[in-house]
Amino acid sequence: MRKIRGVFEDHAVSAAIDNAAQKNPRVAEVFRGLGWGLAREAEVAGYELPGHSPPQYLYKTSSPIVGDPVITARYEYDDTDVTIKSVLITIQGEDE
Question: Cα torsion for 17, 29, 41, 48, to the nearest 10°?
């Protein structure tokens, strides 16, 4: 059975998600999905960023639906936790 990690975010990430979700409620849904995926597959989900200790990774959600939020997250993980360090929120179909 695959290990499920706890998912945490820095305060700035929480503020960014809350602020964006006031304008587009789908942001909160996409962020929950991002957390769900990272909790289960953090080690294979993202691309490792060079020059970070501990290692940090980037993962970008995707959607074929114009107007849906897309979240790019920078995160790190260990055996028990994933910590989302920062996010960039864009809207599918807008200039990214």
Answer: -40
